[in-house]
Amino acid sequence: MSSTSSLAVVRRGAATAAAATPPAAAAVVPPAAVHASDADERTRDRVLNAVLEHGPISAAELGDLLGFTPAAVRRHLDHLSRHGVIEVKRVARSGARAGRPARRYVLSSQGQSTLGNDYLDIATLALQRLSEMAGPEAVRQFAVERFAEMERRYAPEIEEAGPDIRARALVLAEALTRDGFVASAASIEAKAPLPAALSSVQLCQGHCPIQQLAAQFPVFCDVETEVFSRLVGVDVRRLSTLARGGHVCTTHIPTGRPAAAGQHRPATTPGNLDEVSNHLQERP
After folding, report:
1. Same domain, 162 and 205
2. pLDDT digits over 235-272, tens only?
3. How far is it, in rounded angstroms, from Cα 253 to Cα 239?
4. Are residues 25 and 92 in the same domain?
5. Domain boundaries, position 221
6. 63 — phi, psi (to 5°)?
7. How many domains does the chain have?
8. Across 17-21, 26-30, 84-88, 163-167, which has the greatest mean pLDDT?
9. What percent of the chain has pLDDT over 90?
10. pLDDT cut 70: percent of the chain above it
11. How far is CA 105 from CA 15, 54, 85, in A?
12. CB 233 within 8 A of CB 260
């Protein structure tokens, strides 16, 4: 991402405010204030680039990364938040740090759209042309290949969690969060008179790097869901997606039976296109 692109985003609000300022008032702005404003914009550009590259990231982590004081980094984060370029995601803590969700910053949908339009247009056109020339199966194969690397990286650590579905889902959520999906896993216990077999884990993803692309090509969500199913070792269902307007992507993972450790089998061929899409399922 170029500095020019990101500066254009964060300066839009300032330009709007300047347009509403009477000429007489604008004429008396001291030169030193102009230089200070330019310095702030350059600093905010650094903050924005850091959020884009490392998000979800906390204010403290940004301060350490960029060498800013906590007060300075929060001032710039507040400015970017007011302009809608970044937003706060609350990420559930795990292990000994469990408790109040942590505040982490990610690029907002507005920021993603503004900074990624060229990518989105090119990717969409390329996939449309691929579908026209080689058929929908070729688009699905592309999606399978895209998620194969994720599955390869996640599989060993999820296998280490053993056969317990909840444990595997928690490890999957942690792996997704590291990759910027802002994921969490919440256990839902079935209470009498419902059978214990109806207990589940709800896996939620608060951020999707390819959200707008997936809105036009739902097969990306389908293939991701298939990967989750193989990784945790049970059939799962996608209840909602960001691509279809959901607040988060939610995957229902039943925990009524254990997964067999060491039985993970990655995909080798794309599934049957006649199968019903699980992109947006009703709650089981």
Report:
1. yes
2. 999 999 988 888 789 999 999 766 555 556 666 544 44
3. 10
4. yes
5. 137-254
6. -60, -45
7. 2
8. 163-167
9. 32
10. 69
11. 24, 9, 10
12. yes
Angle, CA of 78, 118 and 14, to the nearest 5°: 30
- Whether residue 282 is contained in a domain is answered as no
Peptide bond before residue 101 is cis, with ω within 30 degrees of 0: no
DSSP string, 114-167: HHHHHHHHHHHHHHHHHHHHH-HHHHHHHHHHHHHHHHHHHHHHHHHT-S-HHH
The CA dihedral of 226, 230, 232, 238, to the nearest 10 degrees, is: 10
Instruction: Identify whether residues 146 and 238 lie together within a single domain.
Output: yes
Residue identified by tokens 């590291």 is 178
- Is there a single domain that holds both residue 235 and residue 142? yes
Token output for 55:
């998000």
Burial class (CB in 10 A: 0-12, 13-18, 19+), 116: buried
**Alpha helices (runs of H) in the chain, residue ranges in sequence order:** 3-19, 23-27, 31-54, 59-66, 70-82, 109-134, 136-160, 165-178, 211-216, 219-232
**Domain check: are 8 and 73 in the same one?**
yes
Handedness of CA 79, 80, 84, 87 (dihedral sign): negative
Pick the range with the lowest mean pLDDT from 37-46, 82-91, 139-148, 261-270: 261-270
Cis check: omega of the bond before 284, within 30 degrees of 0: no
Length of the chain: 284
